[in-house]
């Protein structure tokens, strides 16, 4: 019994000293669509592999889509029965060496700001064909990651008729 307790204490100590290095996958964008239309498919312009952009069930209104690490923007096509809408998400890619983790990638708002907030942008007719789009930028691994008022990663809300 003593050996089991000693082993458990040793494992607890070893696991508690690990450093949180953030997500282990490429950055994603969380998209929420508020409107009556449904999409048959969503694709990204210039995507090497469209396996992530599968056919979409008609009752889905939330999506997780990858951000391109090859450029500072990603353009998505939202295909519905009556039209095709576009949405371009702009961001800055941040690559840095995190001690104990290796190279880490994060995203930040683009240099140009469209609102007074340092992490929220509202588009109406610019970079999108939707009626209104709100984009919130949060860090995946940076200093603001654990703040309650900031989203983790990029969060997009599409308001559409």
Topology:
Blueprint lengths: L1 H15 L11 E7 L6 E4 L17 E5 L6 E7 L4 E7 L1 E7 L3 E7 L11 E4 L8 E6 L16 E6 L2
Parallel strand pairs: 1-10
Antiparallel strand pairs: 1-3, 2-4, 4-5, 6-7, 8-9, 9-10
What would you say this structure looks like, in words?
The chain has one helix spanning 2-16; strands spanning 28-34, 41-44, 62-66, 73-79, 84-90, 92-98, 102-108, 120-123, 132-137, 154-159. It has 161 residues and is mainly beta. The protein has one domain (22-159). The longest helix is centred in the N-terminal third of the chain and has 15 residues, at 2-16. This is Lipoprotein.
- State the separation between the terminal residues, measured CA to CA: 65 Å
The overall number of domains is 1
How helix-rich are the residues, as a percent range? under 10%
Rg over CA atoms, rounded to whole Å, is: 20 Å
**pLDDT averaged residue by residue:** 74
Which strand order does the major sheet show? Answer: 3-1-10-9-8
**Number of E strands:** 10
Q: How can the largest sheet be summarized?
A: 5 strands, mixed
> Helical segment tally?
1
Strand content: 35-45%
List SSEs in N-to-C order.
Answer: HEEEEEEEEEE
Task: Tell me briefly what this model is.
This is Lipoprotein. This protein has one domain (22-159).
Features:
Lipoprotein, 9% helix, 161 residues, mainly beta, five-stranded mixed sheet, single chain, elongated
């Amino acid at each position: 019994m003593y050996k089991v307790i000693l082993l458990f204490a040793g494992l607890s100590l070893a696991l508690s000293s690990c450093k949180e290095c953030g997500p282990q996958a490429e950055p994603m964008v969380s998209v929420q669509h508020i409107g009556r239309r449904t999409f048959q498919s969503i694709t990204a312009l210039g995507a090497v592999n469209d396996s992530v952009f599968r056919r979409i069930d008609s009752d889905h209104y939330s999506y997780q889509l990858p951000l391109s690490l090859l450029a500072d923007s990603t353009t998505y096509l939202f295909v519905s029965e009556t039209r095709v809408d576009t949405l371009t998400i702009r961001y800055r890619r941040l690559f840095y060496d995190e001690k104990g983790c290796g190279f880490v990638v994060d995203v930040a708002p683009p240099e140009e700001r469209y609102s007074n907030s340092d992490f929220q942008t509202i588009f109406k007719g610019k970079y999108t064909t939707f009626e209104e789009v709100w984009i919130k930028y949060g860090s995946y691994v940076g200093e603001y990651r654990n703040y309650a008022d900031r989203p983790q990663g990029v969060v997009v809300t599409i308001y559409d008729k």
